[in-house]
Amino acid sequence: MTSKNKYFEVLGIKPTTNQAEIKKAYRKQALKFHPDRNNDPNAHYHFILITEAYEVLSGQREINNQKKKSQTAPKRSKEEILAEKVRLAKERYRRQKEEEEAKDNAYYSKVASGWTWRLFKVMAVYCAIWATLLTVDYFSEGEQVTVTTELSADRYERTLRVRGEMFYVDNHEYWWQHNIRIPIRGNYSYLFHDLKSISVMTHYEPSYHKDSNSHKMNGYDHFIEKELFTANSYNSIHGVFPFLHFFFFIPLMLILFKRQTLRFNVWRLVSLWMIFPTVVFFTFSNDRIFYLIDLIFNP
C-alpha cells in the first residue's frame, strides 16, 4: 500500500480499497483538470497523473508498466510523449463516461418499462385522483355536529383536543369563561367526514327548552345566531393543505415529464417509498374510503 500512497494523494483521498470511492475521486478530479475544460497550461499534466493513478489503483495497470514500455519503445520527443499521454488519458476518460452512460441507460430502461412501470403508472393515477378528492373535500362543507365527548383542553397552550384532532383557539373570551362546559361544534368535510374545524361560542349563556330532557343540547342547537370563533385543525391532513396535496401529484408529473436524469430517479424512489405508502395510509385512516363508498351508494 505504501508504494501506492502517492496515487491516493493525486486523487485527493486517503488510502482505501473501496473501488467506488476511488472511481468517484477520479471522476471529480478528471472533470476538474480535463484539458478541454481547464485552460491552465499545467492542467494536462494533472490529467495524466490522475488517469495513471486511477488505472493503478483500479488494477488496470502495474506500477512499473510505464517504465518497461519506455525501455523498449522507440525514442520520441518530450512533446510527442506528452501528447500521447494526454490522448490516452482522454481516451480513458471517454471510455469511462460511455460505460457509465450505458449503465444509466440500462437502469433507466429497466425502471421505466415493463410491469413495474405499469404498476407505477397505476399508483400515480391513483395518487392524483386521491389528491384531487382531498382538495375538493378541503373546500366542501359537510355535517355540523355538537361535540360533547372526547374533549380535552390546555389553557396554557390555548389548544383543544377534539376527537383526536388539535385546534389552536386564540380567543381570550373563550378561555376567560372556560370554567363552565362551553359547547363545541365540529365542522366536518363532505366527502371523507374529516373534522376540519371547530366553532366555539365566545359569549355563552345556557338556556333550556322546557319541553326537552337534554339540558346540554337545548339553547344552542346548531349554534344558530350565536357569536362564534372558528379554529382549524393543525395536525390533520387539512392542516397541511396544499403542500401534501401537491406532493401527491409528483408521481403523475414524473410520468408526464419522464427524463433520464438523476432527479427523475430520486423522485421515483421518493414516490415508491414515501408518496405511495402515505396515500394508502390516508385512504384507509379515519375510514375515509368507507365514507366515500357510502356517499357514492347512498347520496
Report on the structure:
By secondary structure, the protein is α+β, with helices and mostly antiparallel strands. The chain folds into 3 domains: 2-110, Helix Hairpins (Orthogonal Bundle); 118-137 and 243-297, no CATH class; 144-233, no CATH class. It is built from 11 helices and 7 strands. It has a 4-stranded antiparallel β-sheet, with no helix packed on it. Strands 2-3-4 form a 3-stranded antiparallel β-sheet, with no helix packed on it. Helix 1 (5-11) crosses helix 3 and helix 2 (19-33) runs antiparallel to helix 3. Mean pLDDT is 82; it is low at 65-71 and 209-220.
Features:
11 helices; Helix Hairpins; elongated; 299 residues; three-stranded antiparallel β-sheet; alpha+beta
Q: How would you sum up the major sheet?
A: 4 strands, antiparallel
Q: Which fold does the CATH topology of the largest domain refer to?
A: Helix Hairpins
List segments where confidence is low: pLDDT < 50 over at least 5 consecutive residues.
65-71, 209-220
Give the tally of structural domains.
3
Bulk shape: elongated
Q: On the 0-100 scale, what is the average pLDDT?
A: 82
- Strand tally is 7
Query: How is the quaternary structure best described?
Result: single chain
Cα-atom Rg, whole angstroms?
A: 34 Å
Strand content: 5-15%
**Category from helices, strands and their pairing:** alpha+beta
- Which CATH class of the largest domain applies here? Mainly Alpha
Main β-sheet, spatial strand arrangement: 1-5-6-7
* Second rung of CATH, namely the architecture of the largest domain: Orthogonal Bundle
Could you name the CATH homologous superfamily of the largest domain? DnaJ domain
Separation of termini? 77 Å
Element order: H for helix, E for strand: HHHHHHEEEEHEEEHHHH
